[in-house]
Amino acid sequence: MENKSLDILKQYWGYEAFRELQDDIIASVLQQRDTLALMPTGGGKSICFQVPALQMEGICIVVSPLIALMKDQVEQLRKREIEAIAIFSGMSKREVDIALDNCVYGKIKFLYLSPERLYSDLVQERIRYMKVNLFAIDEAHCISQWGYDFRPSYLQLAKLRELHPEVPFLALTATATSKVVDDIQEKLEFKAKNVFRKSFRRQNLAYMALDESDKSGRMLRMIHKLGGSGVLYVRNRRETQEVAQYLMNHGVSADYYHAGLDAQTRSWKQDNWTTNKMRVMVATNAFGMGIDKPDVRFVLHLDVPDSLEAYYQEAGRAGRDGKKAFPVLMYQQADRERLWENFQNSFPSVKFIQQVYHHLGNYYQIAYGAGKGLVFDFDLVDFTKRYQLEILPTQSALKFLERDGWISLSEAVFIPSRFKFEVDFQELYKFQVQSVKYDPLIKLILRSYGGAFDYYIPINEFELAKRLKLPRDVVVEMLTGLMKQELASYLPQTDAPQLEFLQGRVDYKNLFIDTQFIEERKEVKETQLKAVYHYLDEKYCRSIALQAYFGEQTDETCGECDLCLMRTHQESVEEKLRLEIKTLLLEQPLDLKDLVDGLTIGNDSARLKVVRELVDQEYILIEEERYFWNTTF
């Protein structure tokens, strides 16, 4: 079985051997055992479900909250000639219906689902008729309310057990505390506990947390000194532009990235950075997920993350090539205070949550009792401006409404325009003969895209317009015309988050909000916040502190972090002081002042510290306030 796994790895991925733990996890899955895999960012988690799924008959269902990552993995699998498909928020009911049919009756090996889709009776019913060989749950920590990134939609995953009780689960995550590890297995109803852990220690990473009054100057010096490419994480969109401009003004090739940019611009910027056309990307935390760039030499945080899980994931994007890299966190007292203020604003009152729900109903003009199953593009900024709401409390209110099953809100992601012919070839040909206007467009679509009669295909209106030598607006009008004549379906592109109403609208005064859950989440977030403060105040070793947080006990220092380097320097200074003190006192006894003044290394505080230690250890003896070396040593 192991040889077959290795053959598949070589055939499709071109690797000669598995990374640490991959083959053990694959073997566990092939033995039909529920499995939880804890592997750091960049550890090769996707191989752990893709290889065994290819060995087994049937389809592997992959659940992931990251739509951009799902789309990327589907694209990568297709490039390897492996049949894969993704279903996520923003797709039409007809698109979903066709995709699910292909999974039931076609040769699809991987179905990627966003967790929100499991709320749909249509999706659940079709999964029942699929020959499923494995359920792979990516970002599995999202199922635990004790985790840093709890997603209410993940609570639907238990329904997969009801549909296929014998199919094993493979849960994957890069960040989980011991409590979250237990919670994942409980929520997914593991038949027996079964965890594979890769150490959270990254030997090549030199973690640093610096209390820095001049962040800009320190940042610039570090970038010049470290060389190579890197990522700078900042708090908001405005800062991404300001910091990128500052770097460019000082001769550093830089650009900015945030979720507010259109998909084409984000893709272009990311590609420039990935291919080293540009050195430094200044970004919000929207950047980096799923990016596997091996030669990142530094990840600098100019603001304090709100959890160690988030920091570990973001910092872990450095040094994936195994060479030395530097995750550096710079902070000031004001940053610590702002973090606490944001925490307080993240837990709005029940009254505020009810108001947000009421405004949502009015925003989309939904009548009471109506709205169930309706999906809309959602612009958070426009929504908060219209009703004069603060963004952070509103985001939190939406999460609590999602938790209680009133709405579902997906991430912002680019979905290209899609097209499908709704008539057969003969009927379409008759139309072409009768319509000179549409004939060139139809011929171009048939020549350029395969499968347009069977399923929705992604199309590019600009490309079609260019090849037809027509304005884009004319092409869009023609595509819309084909749809109006019921010859085709045409769905224009979008990159907005998708908000779905899961229940008919109720009077906000009758809206049930789970207040106990809100209090529990508040306790969890406060614990996580205090862990961040503890990390900043750590005095011994950054790597040990991170490992301890994730339940991995060790007393082996990393020797690379800022604390280890300071301690090594201090030990070196102290050792030199001991030798100098011994030399002076062997020449002649001295009083304390003359002894301290006669030393050339360190400051007075360091000199006195070493003298006291040598006295306590009886290397130095004192008689009549004169210090002399104990020659018996």
UniProtKB/TrEMBL annotation:
Keywords: ATP-binding, DNA-binding, Helicase, Hydrolase, Isomerase, Metal-binding, Nucleotide-binding
Catalyzed reaction equations: Couples ATP hydrolysis with the unwinding of duplex DNA by translocating in the 3'-5' direction
One Gene Ontology MF term: four-way junction helicase activity
EC number(s) on file: 5.6.2.4
CDD domains: DEXHc_RecQ (cd17920)
SUPFAM superfamilies: P-loop containing nucleoside triphosphate hydrolases
Entry's family note: Belongs to the helicase family. RecQ subfamily.
PANTHER family, alphabetized: ATP-DEPENDENT DNA HELICASE Q1, DNA HELICASE RECQ FAMILY MEMBER
Protein name: ATP-dependent DNA helicase RecQ
Organism: Sphingobacterium wenxiniae
